[in-house]
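Hi support team,

I'm filing this because I wasn't sure whether my run with guanine finished correctly. The job status page said complete, but I'd like someone to confirm that the output block is well-formed before I use it downstream. Pasting the exact inputs I used:
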Amino acid sequence: MVAQRIEGKQISDEIRSELIHKTAELAKQGVVPGLAVVLVGEDRASQVYVASKAKACEQLGFYSEVHRLEASTTQEQLLALIDKLNNQSNIHGILVQLPLPSHIEEKAVIDAIDVKKDVDGFHPISVGNLVIGDDSLLPCTPAGVIELIKRSGNTIAGKHAVVIGRSNIVGKPVSMLLLREHATVTICHSRTANMEAIAQTADILVVAIGKPQAIGASFVKPGAIVIDVGINRLEDGKLVGDVDYEDVLDTAGFITPVPGGVGPMTITMLLANTLKAAEQANR
Ligand code: GUN
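And here is everything the job wrote out:
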């Protein structure tokens, strides 16, 4: 049987139309969600991400401001900007694009963001709330993974979810979210023994390792839901995931393509977080 494609673009559009509706409701109370995006340096990929975040805000009727700072910006200057944004009432979400230049300590910057405006969900208090199960702003890509599974008609409770990858940005938080959704969760990583055998027992397989097409059909249980978080550019310019899509297609029950799977969800969940932060600030 050929796996059903989980259409990230379509699900993302569906969520965005819900957000437009909620934004209009909030506008009646005189509140416009506001997002500040901070970019330090000239990283090409980051410039593209930042531009698409600003454009997405515009499409939903959000206020946004982009702060493009020179690569030579000091940590003190960046922290001063964050302090200003923390105190700016028309800004509900602050996102500092990563990676930062090496002379700036990432942790000091993330820690400085007001947790109520932490739309990336990277602040230690946000991470703690995620683990405890308290209401908080959830990291965007992991939250998008959960939406893709649910909105493609699948349930999570009681399933065995195997997450390959243990990064702070994806592997760890997506594992916690799956646990919150009552899955039985196994986390695999570069030192895991018998990874293939473990992956074969997964009803839900989430892959986030940053290795092009590393996971083939031998890792997949027939009928499994396969979520590919990887985005890798091959030498010929082609974009591929961490999963070998063509190889897995006849084994999986559901699969996300790359591009067009998890990718479109990340910015959508950022918008959802910004709206949520604006709603909470208005209470
Ligand atoms: N760089 C690549 N992805 C992300 C992300 O989700 N958030 C931030 N802040 N920087 C990134």
